[in-house]
Each structure stands twice: as C-alpha cells, then as structure tokens.
C-alpha cells in the first residue's frame, strides 16, 4: 500500500485517550493542522463532521476511516490512531472502534481518493493487519507495522 507517502510518524499515535467520536474528530483535526500549516483545525473538523453526518465511516472489525476532501489540502494526508479504549462510532457492525485511519484528500482528487480508501479498507479487512496494529505498544511500532502492509 502507499501508506509511506501519506503517513508520518508524527501523525501516528498509539494509546490515544479519546472518549467519543466528536473528540476523535477534534483530535484528528488538531493533530493534522499542527503537523501541516496548510490546514485550519476548525475548518478540517467541520469537513470531517460533515462527512460523518452523511453516514458513519466505521467500516467494521473495530475500524473507522474518517475522511474528507479539503480545498486546503495539496497532497493526500493520513493519520493513524490506536485508541486505548474503543469508542462508539456507529460502525456498520455496531462494534466499537479502536483503530482509526483518518484521510484528508485534495478537493479535486476524486479517483485518487477512492483508490486510497479502497486500499485502506482492503488492508483493514485483514485480521492479521488489524492484529499487528493492535499489538503495537508505541507510536514507532504502530508506524512501522502500518508501513509493513
């Protein structure tokens, strides 16, 4: 997969303490904005929230892939989180979520957006990939395991 081009160690967090879907989206927005000055945290939060209102991005097996398009985004940007406690995310299988891959894409990158989402969904559908990520005990380990996919 192409994670090495969209994910950085600075946007990889193992053991994140988040208590709700809203707080998760705030954490993602703040983290991506802090890492990349082209983003505005409030604007990004509103874009992610608007996408979630269309339907949950919880894909099942304890995984969510919140995503949105942003006019401020110039390159596909990802953030990987392993939560210390699973949260309700209104996922398709009604299971709480503990693995999250946030994806921000340029507004005009329609085909690329769908390809990356598909690749992420395929990877996270593999039990072995989810298990590897869940066994990570540090940001570095989580990042390395994600890139091994």
What's the SSE blueprint?
Elements: H1 3-6, E1 12-16, H2 21-35, H3 41-54, E2 58-60, E3 63-64, E4 67-70, E5 77-87, E6 97-106, H4 110-124, H5 127-134, H6 139-147
Parallel strand pairs: 1-5, 3-6, 4-6
Antiparallel strand pairs: 2-3, 5-6
Describe this structure in words.
This protein is α/β, with parallel strands linked by helices. The radius of gyration is 14 Å and the shape is globular. The mean pLDDT is about 95. Strands 1, 2, 3, 4, 5 and 6 form a 6-stranded mixed β-sheet that branches. The protein has one domain (about 5-149): Mannitol-specific EII, Chain A (3-Layer(aba) Sandwich). The chain has helices spanning about 5, 20-35, 40-55, 110-125, 125-135, 140-145, and strands at about 10-15, 60, 65, 65-70, 75-85, 95-105. It is built from 6 helices and 6 strands; from the N terminus they run H-E-H-H-E-E-E-E-E-H-H-H. A hairpin with a 2-residue loop joins strand 2 and strand 3. The longest helix is centred in the first third of the chain and has 15 residues, at about 20-35.
